[in-house]
Amino acid sequence: MRMRKKHWAIPNLNKNPYIYMKPQEFKGKWQKNFEKAQPIHLEIGTGRGDFIVEKARQNPDTNYIAMDREANAFVEAGEKIKEAKLLNIIGILGDADNLLEIFGKSEVEKIYINFCNPWPKNRHKKRRLTHPLFLNMYKEILKENSEIEFKTDNDELFEDSIDYFEREGFKIEIIDRDLKVKEDEVISYYEQRWREQNIKIKFLKVKFVKS
Ligand SMILES: C[S@@+](CC[C@H](N)C(=O)[O-])C[C@H]1O[C@@H](n2cnc3c(N)ncnc32)[C@H](O)[C@@H]1O
From atom 12 of ligand 1, which residue's Cα is the shortest distance away? Predict the structure, then answer.
């Protein structure tokens, strides 16, 4: 079901001091937007923000950046980030297509991709956030030995993504086709929805190692 367009989303995000609307201006300088300089973890396609706000709450020694290109859903993430009043999380309204204009080389120490659109049609596959076109950008912005964690409900996207990561030289650390909820597991809005429908959650953890 399509979300109704919220005409107030952009004005609301514009007024939110935790949200950066022109992220290109901060390329290579993201640490300056946090209280403390510490590793930056990025979630691409944050949606409503439940996952990353909880991560930030649990891990004060990490700086978190929530990123999404759709103001409609992201405005909710913005509100959650503001209400959390944490010193280690900010958001950026931006498209992953522009990652290289937004982040400097090795600026990020972990990437999370949760339940990205599966884009099943062949002609759309290059829009997948795990497609090699994106993986090559991740290699630029990630520090060596950093990890990417990817979760999906979609079998085809999952199996293709394993191929993509292997093909691009990432070291596969964990492949789990039926991820059980651990005590400290942080769950996104979409993960919650799929779990309620008893859909198996697929999980991949990979490491970026320079060849
Ligand atoms: C299916 S939702 C999942 C939201 C959230 N991660 C969750 O698990 O609840 C996918 C999100 O990815 C965002 N997205 C898709 N392509 C993107 C891109 N190229 N750059 C940034 N965000 C993107 C969409 O706007 C949407 O909010």
Answer: 45
Q: Establish whether residue 42 lines the binding site of ligand 1, counting it when its CB lies within 6 angstroms of any ligand atom.
A: no
Per-residue pLDDT tens over the stretch 123-168: 999 999 999 999 999 999 999 999 999 999 999 999 999 999 999 9
Backbone angles phi, psi at 16, to 5 degrees: -85, 115
User: Mind listing the domains of the chain with CATH numbers?
Assistant: 9-207 (3.40.50.150)
Q: With beta carbons less than 8 A apart as the criterion, state whether 88 and 41 touch.
A: no
Q: Which residue do the tokens 């993504």 mark?
A: 161
Residue 74 has pLDDT above 60, yes or no: yes
Q: Is 23 in the pocket of ligand 1 (CB under 6 A)?
A: no
Tell me 201's DSSP state.
P
Q: Tell me how far the alpha carbon of residue 92 lies from the centroid of ligand 1, in angstroms.
A: 13
d(CA 131, CA 125): 7
Q: Which atom of ligand 1 is nearest to the CA of 43?
A: 6
Assigned token pair, 163: 């191929």
CA of 47 to the centre of ligand 1 (A): 5
The CA distance from 171 to 163, in Å, is 11
Ligand 1 in reach of 130 Cβ (< 6 A): no
Give the separation between CA 200 and CA 180, rounded to whole angstroms: 9
Q: Which protein residue has the closest C-alpha to ligand 1 atom 25? A: 70
Contacts of 38 by beta carbon, 8 Å cutoff, 6+ apart: 61, 62, 63, 88
Report CA(99)–ligand 1 centroid distance (Å).
14
Q: Using the 8-state DSSP alphabet, how is residue 29 labeled?
A: -
